[in-house]
Amino acid sequence: MSRYKKLIDEANKEHLRSLTRRHFLMDCVTGIGAAALGSFLAGCGGTSAIPSAVAADPMAPKAPHFPGKAKSVIYLHMAGAPSQLELFDYKPALQKLHNQLCPPSLLEGKKFAFIRGVPKMLGPQAVFSQHGASGAWISDHLPHFSSMADEVSFLKAVQTDQFNHGPAQLLMQTGSARLGRPSTGSWVTYGLGTENSNLPGFVVLTSGGKTPDAGKSIWGSGFLPSVYQGVQCRTKGDPVLFLSDPEGMDRDLRKASIDAINRINEEEYTAYGDPETLARISQYELAYKMQIAVPDVMNIQNEPDYIHEMYGTQPGKESFANNCLLARKLVEKGVRFVQLYDWGWDSHGTDENLAIDYGFRNKCREIDRPVTALLQDLKQRGLLDETLVIWGGEFGRTPMQENRDGKDMPFLGRDHHVEAFTIWMAGAGIKKGFTWGETDEIGYAAVKGKVAINDIHATILQQLGFDHEKLTYQFQGRPFRLTDTGGHVITPILA
Amino acid sequence: MILLESTGSWASLTGRMHPLLVHLPIGILIVALLFVLISKLPRWQSLRSAIPFTLFLAFAAAAFSCLTGYLLSQDGGYDEKTLDTHFYLGIAVAVISGIWWLTYRMLKKSPKLELVLALVMLVLISITGHYGGTLTHGDNYLEAAMPAALSGFSKKATAAGTSNYKDIGDALLYEDLVQPVLNNRCISCHSQQKLKGGLQLETLALMRKGGENGPVLKDSMPEESEIYKRIILSENDEHRMPPKGKPSLTPAETELLHWWIACGGPAGKKVKDLPKNPRISAVLAAMQPSKPVDQLATVPEKTVGKAPDAAIAALTAKGLKVLPVAENSNYLSITAFTAQGFNDQDAALMLPLKEQLIWLDLSGTAVTDQVFSTLGQLKNLTKLTLKGTAIKGKELKALNQCANLMYLNLVQTATGAADIISLKNNKHLEQLYVGQTGIPASTLQDLHKQLELMKIDTGGYRLAQLPTDTIAYHKVMNN
């Protein structure tokens, strides 16, 4: 009996999944020309007439397994993978080996994306000092962020097993290096729904420029119903595509149309009682509400000057700084998961922009102020206690200087490195001013406190109130979870 | 070696060879013991003839060790009781090995007595060695390194890893935080056994007594206290403590010691009752023991009955989101992201949930100061957010009836400092957010002073403009 129930359940969800966000947003637009009638007062007549409307809404808020410390997550992903050796993992011993040939013991049996033959060691290209009462080592590339040393927990021995960007980003965001799994944000909205039905539960913001190598699947919903996929909001033009009124139609007319469609749907529901009709009603409603709510929350013009000064934001520009400010605004409005992608961190040394000593420093400058401002702004609004902030790339960079195809490079660079890299977490029950994990004296291998990617996922879910082993979804005859068959909560960093 | 020329002598140098030389008689005696056992096998019988000579070597080495040991003891700085025991045991080892050698012929006729004597010898060198080790490394050298599974057998097992407090605020500053640092970093030399510099740091009374160069503690003046001054000296300074080669205090431990001295070096005081600065707050936050993962301080431990569905439905109809804080809990959380029109009259609808409602977020709603009469009745509230509302805080003191309130967010409201101070005696309130309230900076100082035990965030953070903020790095092309 329960097997049939599971099958039917899965079939229903499969159907939900096939309705993509784009379908229903497109439907909103095309459906408008079809009819124009009636009245519908949002949040009033509709909900009382159909008491179970909420139950049918896949985005309705849900309680977690146990009380969560975090209500929302802001994930700052530096696509391309920043060098831990120029930011947080201070290795004076590596400086002494600078320009010497790499010992064969570090190369035997190892694979690198681009390093061939015997590369030279590359000493830290930054000046480090200790900061805060915790004495964390942070380089002079992040002069503002240094003041946040006592707010964050550093994970210095994160390990991955993927040395190419696409698979590594997929692993970082979906828990699997192959396509088809739901992203972390999708799992979170699947588990928690959203308390603000006027906004998407999972928003993705990119800093312009290059999209992450893994493409949009890193915020996709995989086998989860597509309502849980990340909604990419643009910082230029319309924040969400296909959401604005078509030309020649004003908002009143649009409202009238949607009201009419909903009334017809209500009649349909009274006649047939199909819950899918209710889902459709709530989706029309969401799309309509989002027309007002999304442009409003995505507008940073009204923020006071001192906030702009703090973040270094310039309204109307696509920038990481603007996205940081938006992330705070979205979280303040109840959005569950805000995913930021920045780009240009792939410092191979192939050109000036990707040089450890030039482009990398410029990237650091671009994020230093906004990231610091984000933490401080969340703090002063009392949001940091319930917002989990994560910063990191998809892997680290080698202590060796890259020698692509065995040749000298025009600029200093480092290759992809999977054995140890640094990410940090802050807020929402994460220890303040703490470091977990250690690498060897040249920062090549993790020595203590190793952290796997699915440990990070387990910790994110934990802080939101989930047992990562129990947040599952039935697919292809077995329950799936974000942490797959692994994942240990990183308890040492929990306050 | 300049040091030796001035204070040293041949006797002293020979004495310091003792920790090295003692291993000779130990090794030789064990070899003798092995010979005794192995030569019982017919194949190895020839070894018997080597036993007397081995025993003679053991006796000679033991006697010489005793001599060097005596010379070393003249240096002083050791616990007398342990030293005496070690001294007599050492002599006993030398004497017995001598007797054993002299009477070897006689013993040969009594193989059983021979075996007994050999085993006694083994036990004796073990005990002597242990006391010697205690003199060199301090008496908890082994226990400190014992894994948890073993330390249960040790009489001194104080379970160093587990803390006596559930919340860092309840920790006793000296007993739970400072003394463990001293135990960990200082006591191996500054104890009754070793007494370096005549200083003992095992108890507060002994610390106050000071060392041979006078007191080490000047209350409330860390920078004037020898114990702190020495810790922050540069690593190459010969007066630095712990000395070169021994693990230094971590920045957090140093900060802790500084704070304790600055507080006047109190004993029996809880962390939460002492004034804090931002640096020590950061250190303390990192020391907060991990709670069971599924428990939150803001969720009461005692259970509560289910909330009436009708009351939840009435609030939901107003646009509020009413949710259990966890799937198996009856405690409720309310948010108002989609109920910006929620007002003072609507607030009364929450009263039927006053047992269950613990987290309330009314950010951006239309509530005014009149809402406080309702909020005051929500006695189980632990978290309350009124951010961006029209409240002026005049009735804020009504929240004193919410005896479980821990978190209060008044950001972007017109609340005044005096009203906030009226919450002074709200005993669980520990986190207060009052940024963008328009309270003048001069008054903020007073606020911090009046509410010194609360974590108050007054916001208004600014980031300095640094020259590096505008430098774009480019390679300069040289032709």
From TrEMBL, chain A:
What Pfam families does the entry give? DUF1501
Identify the InterPro entries for this entry: Alkaline_phosphatase_core_sf, DUF1501, TAT_signal
Under Gene3D superfamilies, the record lists:
Alkaline Phosphatase, subunit A (3.40.720.10)
Native organism is Chitinophaga jiangningensis
UniProt-recorded name of the protein:
Tat (Twin-arginine translocation) pathway signal sequence
Tell me which domain of life the UniProt entry assigns to the organism this sequence originates from: Bacteria
Automatic annotation (TrEMBL), chain B:
Asked whether the UniProt record includes Protease among its keywords, one would answer no
> Which is one Pfam family of this protein?
DUF2231
Membrane spanning segments where? 20-38, 50-73, 85-103, 115-133
Please state every residue range assigned to the domain named Cytochrome c: 156-336
Write out the entry's keywords from A to Z.
Heme, Iron, Membrane, Metal-binding, Transmembrane, Transmembrane helix
Q: Does the keyword Membrane apply?
A: yes
Q: Name one GO molecular function term.
A: electron transfer activity
Read off the Gene3D superfamilies from this record.
Ribonuclease Inhibitor
Task: Give the protein name, as stated in the record.
Answer: Uncharacterized membrane protein
The record lists the organism as Chitinophaga jiangningensis
The taxonomy runs: Bacteria, Pseudomonadati, Bacteroidota, Chitinophagia, Chitinophagales
